C-alpha cells in the first residue's frame, strides 16, 4: 500500500472547496496522471460513481471510483477499484480566511506496475501527483473568489 498526504489552505469557504473537489471531472484538472473520468452517475445523496483512466510511467490503468463517505462540506472519501485499488480522502476544515484541505491517498498498484518500477519510484510518483494536485487545487480555488 502506498500512502501520501498533503495539506493546503485556500481562501474560499469549505462548501466551495468541497463542491470543487466532489466533482470528479475537476480531478482531471488536478491529477496529472488522471487521463479521463467517464460514466459519472450522481445519486440522490450527492455521491458519485464512475470510471477512470490513469497512467503511471506509461502504464495505462483503468477502473471505477465511488464516493463511499460523503459529509458535505467536511469529508469526502472516494474509493477506487480495478487496476488501482484504494482511497482518496479529502477533509475540509474552517481556517482563518478560508479552508484547510487535507488530502490523503492510500493506493495499491497491480503487478504490471510493480514489476516495471521499483517501489521507491512508485512512491515518489504518488507523492509528486499529490503535491501537484494540491498546488493546482490552490490555484483553482484561490482565483474563484
Sum up the structure in keywords:
145 residues, alpha+beta, Alpha-D-Glucose-1,6-Bisphosphate, Chain A, domain 4, seven-stranded antiparallel beta sheet, 4 helices, 7 strands, 31% helix, START-like_dom_sf, Polyketide_cyclase/dehydratase, Polyketide cyclase/dehydrase family protein involved in binding/transport of lipids
List the helices and strands and how they pair.
Blueprint (H helix, E strand, L loop, with lengths): L1 E9 L3 H9 L1 H7 L3 E9 L5 E9 L2 E13 L3 E8 L2 E11 L2 E11 L2 H4 L4 H25 L2
Antiparallel strand pairs: 1-7, 2-3, 3-4, 4-5, 5-6, 6-7
Overview of the molecule:
- Pfam families: Polyketide_cyc2 (PF10604).
- This is Polyketide cyclase/dehydrase family protein involved in binding/transport of lipids.
- It comes from Halapricum desulfuricans.
- InterPro entries: Polyketide_cyclase/dehydratase, START-like_dom_sf.
- This protein is α+β, with helices and mostly antiparallel strands.
- It has helices at residues 14-22, 24-30, 111-114, 119-143; strands spanning 2-10, 34-42, 48-56, 59-71, 75-82, 85-95, 98-108.
- The protein is globular, with a radius of gyration of 15 Å.
- The chain has one domain: Alpha-D-Glucose-1,6-Bisphosphate, Chain A, domain 4.
- Strand 3 and strand 4 (59-71) form a beta hairpin.
- It has 4 helices and 7 strands; from the N terminus they run βααββββββαα.
- A 7-stranded antiparallel β-sheet has the order 1-7-6-5-4-3-2.
